[in-house]
Write a structure and sequence with these properties.
Strand content: under 5%
Shape: elongated
Helix content: 55-70%
Number of helices: 15
Order of helices and strands: HHHHHHHHHHHHHHH
Radius of gyration: 18 Å
Distance between the termini: 15 Å
Number of strands: 0
Structural class: mainly alpha
Amino acid sequence: MHHFDEIHALAAARHGGAAALEAKLTRPASAAELAALPEDRWLSVITKCVFQAGFNWKVIEAKWEGFEAAFDGFDIGRCALMDDEKFDALLQDARIVRNGTKIATVRDNAAFLLELRAEGGAGQVLGGWPSTDYVGLLDLLKRRGSRLGGTTAQYAMRFAGRDSFILSRDVTARLIAEGVVDKAPSSKKAMTQVQAAFNTWMDQSGRSLTEISRVLAMSL
């Protein structure tokens, strides 16, 4: 496995030099910013990623104001207590994408976020989870959330601003090239290997998962 500096150099060579590469990197929000992120914003970003999965992202983005209105600003109390009448109305609501299975995730994920209140709240649990065990957070989201497996939860955490890696095609290709995994990681063992590699690169560089993930993606 290459030292992170070598991978950074590869990415810089492909993107106009180190300064140009740095300009393209994003940094995660601070722990304090994430702790202060309201519950409705966590539910909003989670829902957007659920609906974007397997669908045209531009369509979801264009309808998003309608989603916000249809789901009462993603108030988690209202969404968690969605009754059949509200659900049936949403199935006919042209402001959103009328996918019943995904509409149901709003109710389920709102209930999940309500549960997190007893554990410190969404901002503390999701935002404060240690980056050195990011795969543990992904496992939590998959087990307790609704339709938050695969890369859906990874994108949700990134868009919420928390430190994260996304196992995109390019990131996965770099991980394979580095001998971390031999195919797209899906098993617990493979995800543990991915976490270990990212932890090594964090130690070497002092950078966040978010920055490292972007550099890996741009190194190809």
